[in-house]
Amino acid sequence: MDEPLRTDVAVVGAGAAGLYAALVAAGEGARVTLVSRSPLAQTASYWAQGGIAAALAPDDSSAAHMADTIAAARACARESAVRVLCEESAARVHDLQGLGVQFDADRSGRLALGLEGGHSKRRIVHAGGAATGRRITRDLSALAATHERIRVLEPLAATSLVTHEGRCAGLVVRARHGAPLPIRARAVVVATGGMAALWERTTNPRGAVGAGLSLAGAAGAALADLEFMQFHPTALRARGTRDGFLVTEAVRGEGATLLDERGERFVDELAPRDEVALAIEAELERSGAPAVRLDMRGVDAERFPNIVAALAEVGIDPRRDLLPVAPAAHYTMGGIAADLDGRASLPGLYAVGECACTGLHGANRLASNSLAECFVFGRRAALAACAEPAGPASVPFADSEVAMRPGEATRAALWRHAGLRREPAGLRELACDPFPLARMIGAACLAREESRGAHWRSDHPATDPGLDGMHSVVAPGAEPRFERWD
Hints:
Layout: E1 5-12, H1 16-27, E2 32-35, E3 52-53, H2 62-72, H3 79-98, E4 113-114, E5 124-125, H4 132-146, E6 150-153, E7 157-164, E8 167-174, E9 181-190, H5 211-218, E10 223-224, E11 229-236, H6 250-253, E12 257-259, H7 273-287, E13 292-295, H8 305-312, E14 323-332, E15 335-337, E16 349-351, E17 356-357, H9 369-386, H10 408-417, H11 424-430, H12 436-447, E18 470-474, E19 481-484
Parallel strand pairs: 1-2, 1-9, 2-6, 9-16, 15-17
Antiparallel strand pairs: 3-5, 4-5, 7-8, 8-9, 10-15, 10-18, 11-14, 12-13, 13-14, 18-19
Helix pairs in contact: 1-4, 1-9, 2-3, 3-9, 10-11, 11-12
């Protein structure tokens, strides 16, 4: 194996959270190594259509943002994490503006604020309409690529984390057919995104299979709330590669409606996502149809040019046609258990963005809190990582590789047994799946014997008040346990 590279902070993943964490750490004077499995600006964040939720309007407040987040989370949010996000999100929007990100403005030059499901105020900032992720990752990627204290390794994938004397001391990366390259670091920040592509039907790119969760779990770090996978209500039903294309909630915020086979509305389109997704699922079960219809003919389509372009590929014009949509796995609310500075249970390891679980989202994520989370907690983790002590003079590295690629049978099993509606027999089967992360998901779903937010058990349709504020924690080879955070 080659001689290890040495760095202060290693960041794994170059989406919004990883890029921002790398830039903040470098700004503090740290030597940063940024590891990206794909070329910069082609990560999952690139496809993010939602904006950043922040209390920026004169009639809004962080307290109102907190109340909406806690309500959406179904009595399972970590209140301290919610407070951090809601109090710091506006400042991070201003930071991004200072880095050159241009957000959409109204005719008076003020930030244009959108409305999405579960929000009581207009507080969503976008960049290029539904192209927010694309704009932000493009701008931050350019800054990271040219920063004198950031070394970018692309396209390389992390294959294992290295532990020594009870802490994370680095990682091993490699190109697809290359030799392993060890990296020594005072701290490792995992920002690899979520695991929604473990499910057969998903809005996510195929690579979003929970790689960071698998890496952290194999290294001994605790994972949390794996039963809470959010299903987005309005993913396109189409043949070919556009199946599962996300039609952002922002179009419903601008007046788009959901119609059943009779052409009638059947749900409050701006209710939290778990409610809307389950209502659509119930309608599909009742009618036997593969999709309901999203009517955005009354919406200014020019505000969503990437949606118009994607729909044109399958012969749909949203200014004229109804869109066939159905739920799909979308966002991982669980992840690597982390505190309010992103610290994992393994010293020296940090997690930010969708791969982390601070308890912020509880059982149901409020729309557009995810990008806000990337920047708020990305900054906090970067600052904490920079304060980590120097590691030992020598660290042993081994050429090991964590299993991170599920088979198609696993993806089908997760959709069948851990989809919108779950039954114990299927979950027990899933808990014996050959893929380690799928087994932990199955075990977490079995342990939560209630229905709450994104987790709906057919044998336990009621919410158990005794599990309010409780988070499931699981490690490889151990049974899940419940902890009350805060």
